[in-house]
Amino acid sequence: MKELIAPLAWIGIIAFLVWGVRRIRRERAAQHAAREALRQQAVAELRRFDGQDGHLACVEQVYQRARTGAKAIIVWDANGTSQDAWFHDWPGIPVGAYLLLAGTTGYGPHNHNPNVYYVHPDQVLTVI
């Protein structure tokens, strides 16, 4: 009988741990889904203002970070086109963020791109 108690105890401990890990994963997935739903709701709200004060874009990739800013590729929400962008004084720009921007387009001397979107901190109207 003693020989059965130890293995049964281990089985019980393992089952409890598996249950706990699954519960934590389900809770995290539910929290993530709730945050994503709120984010999508906020983006939908921002789409109403696209073109009025600024233009809505999503940060697709940040390909260079520096002390003075970051180079990134943004995708314009209105038409889905990509554009290189320089975010002055914002090296920590998050990938995947939706931004309402009021920057300007100009020449990019480092990559010889005539169509770089330049954004200063005061030209970032909203971040989601």
- Count of discrete alpha- or pi-helical segments spanning 4 or more residues: 1
- Round the Cα radius of gyration to an integer and report it: 24 Å
Mean pLDDT: 86
Quickly count the domains.
2
Main structural class: alpha+beta
Stated plainly, the CATH topology of the largest domain is called OB fold (Dihydrolipoamide Acetyltransferase, E2P)
Shape summary: elongated
Number of strands: 7
Sheet with most strands: strand arrangement: 5-6-3-2-1-4-7
Order of H and E elements: HEEEEEEE
Residues in β-strands, percent: 35-45%
User: In oligomeric terms, what are we looking at?
Assistant: single chain
Assign the CATH class of the largest domain.
Answer: Mainly Beta
Percent helix, as a range, is 25-40%
Question: CA-to-CA gap between the ends?
Answer: 61 Å
Largest beta sheet, briefly? 7 strands, mixed
CATH architectural grouping of the largest domain: Beta Barrel
Unreliable stretches (pLDDT < 50, length at least 5) are none
